[in-house]
From TrEMBL:
Organism: Pseudoteredinibacter isoporae
Listed GO biological process terms: regulation of DNA-templated transcription
Location of 4-aspartylphosphate modifications: D57
Protein's recorded name: Two-component system response regulator AlgR
Coiled coil start-end: none
Lineage of producing organism: Bacteria, Pseudomonadati, Pseudomonadota, Gammaproteobacteria, Cellvibrionales
PROSITE patterns from the UniProt entry: HTH_LYTTR, RESPONSE_REGULATORY
Keywords of this entry: DNA-binding, Phosphoprotein, Two-component regulatory system
């Protein structure tokens, strides 16, 4: 992407578009290059203006934003898509449509700035890799974990997750962006992602792709050593032999 991020704002409500345009105008590194009131108009604007990012409403007359995003993702050099919507129920569908951000209305300035910064970091190679993941053998499997946070709905790419840790009623996701609480149970996560995560403790699932090894801690118990992370989740005694066998096959 260029130094200035070119943005297309898509919403059937003129006041909503104008509000986003004003918010973007306060950001030095972003510029609104076009506006659109619907899906067809948005696709035409993308071809004409070549934006880096599309801020798009989901609920619009005619073709909705989810369908439009899927069409955009098939373009040869697609812009990143960020949804701005009044409903959080579409979060998973949004990321299946290749969205890189999801904002709940009314959008706040700091939320918008954060999601556009994230979109800037997501380069074209990453977008292509995400597309390949969605075409994998399990087309219906989730590629993101959703969480309701103070910023709205946060979707965490599965490939960025180091491990899940359960603590009483909650599960914390440890990922490249930090730590996030989610509503899923560890049992549900293990069932859904057993191919890519392995249980190392009654309260922990670790991503197989990040495992570097197992080592004994000074206190005497075993811990996992993870690539790109300082965290070392504990391995329970009953899982040590299983982990050793897995490491022997790596």
């Amino acid at each position: 992407m260029s130094t200035i991020m070119d943005v297309l704002v898509v919403d059937d409500e003129a006041l909503a578009r104008e509000r986003l345009v004003r918010m973007i105008s306060r950001m030095e590194e972003c510029e609104v290059v076009a506006q659109a009131a619907g899906a067809d108009e948005a696709l035409q604007a993308i071809k004409a203006a070549g934006p880096d990012v599309v801020l798009m409403d989901i609920s619009m007359p005619g073709e909705d934003g989810l369908s439009a995003a899927k069409r955009i993702s098939t373009m040869e050099d697609p812009p990143a898509v960020v949804f701005c919507t009044a409903y959080d129920k579409h979060a998973v569908e949004a990321f299946e449509a290749q969205a890189v951000g999801y904002l709940l209305k009314p959008v706040r300035q700091e939320q918008l700035e954060q999601v556009l910064q994230n979109a800037r970091k997501l380069n074209r190679m990453q977008i292509a890799a995400l597309d390949d993941m969605n075409k994998a053998d399990r087309p219906n499997a989730r590629k993101h974990i959703s969480a309701k946070t103070r910023r709205g709905v946060e979707l965490i790419p599965l490939e960025d997750i180091f491990y899940f840790l359960a603590d009483q009623k909650y599960v914390t996701v440890y990922h490249r962006g930090g730590e996030t609480l989610i509503d899923d149970t560890l049992k549900e996560l293990e069932s859904e992602f057993e191919a890519s995560f392995i249980r190392i403790h009654r309260n922990a699932l670790v991503a197989r792709s990040y495992i570097e090894g197992m080592e004994r801690a000074p206190e005497g118990h075993y811990v996992m050593r993870l690539r790109d992370s300082e965290e070392k989740p504990v391995v329970s005694r009953r899982h040590v032999s299983k982990i050793r066998a897995m490491l022997a096959e790596m």
